Amino acid sequence: MYQDKKSEIKNELYSIGEIAEVTGLSVSTIRFYSEKGLIVPSYIDESTGYRYFSSRHVWKLEIIKLYKQLGFSLDAILELQETKSLDVLEQILDKSEYSIKKQLEKCQETLENLNWLREQCDVFRRAKAEEGFVIRNIAERNVLYMGVKSELDLWDLVMLHQKKIRKELQSQKTIQRCYGYILKNTFLEEGELKIVGEYVDLNSYSPSARKELRILPGGKYLCLRKPYSDWNNKKVIQTVEDMVKTLKIKPDLMILEEVSLYLLSWEDTLYELQIRIPE
Fold first, then answer.
1. Closest Cα partner for 139 from 276, 36, 42?
2. How many CB atoms lie within 10 A of CB 274?
3. β 213-216/219-227 pair status
4. Do the Cβ atoms of 145 and 257 come closer than 8 Å?
5. pLDDT for 16-35, tens place per residue?
6. What phi and psi values does residue 44 have, to the nearest 5 degrees?
7. Both ends of the chain: CA-CA distance in Å?
């Protein structure tokens, strides 16, 4: 008699596999929802542990799917089921809307960064094809700067500067930046790369730490682009010194600046030597 009643109950219900087929949810997902209390099986076979559900569970699961598509958490869905309150629903909608808007802002920032990085690829290709000296008009730049009194290895300087401006960089929502180095005024005479400071140039940047700010003057600069490794080549440095003498320039500022953000190889990164031409 008990077995007949058990069979009768099961015949009016659906197995978890059947419910999964109808809703498009996986068996494991439905089982998880059941364990979380989002849906309660109509019947559990004590001998097998199998769960059975009614057609009403299909409607419940469709509602849960809808809420999930809107970004509701399972805890929020459970709260709605327990309270059946429009006020609670509206509160959750407000939170979800705020969260989605923040995600959209983040996606927009990421898209802008992707487009900028794509532009950097074109900048690198054009720069690599450029040969010889060029005189450029370069606008005034506000940069985050760190100078050193004693000579440091490049990477030691980078580490010190990054540590110093870490919070400033983390506060920025953009990757749009370039790094540059202020060179020792006797760089050409000594025939060896001498760095006395590093800076970071950030687009549309308003620093909170004004003491870190340095203004690089605008004006005409004699420029030459080479991979970083070439700037330790005495022949290259001699070529620059000869050009400076030919043009009768008395440099008051020499800069080595990244031409573009090149993420594939540090050794191949192009740097532009910028020698300011005093008026």
1. 276
2. 21
3. unpaired
4. no
5. 999 999 999 999 999 999 99
6. -125, 120
7. 108
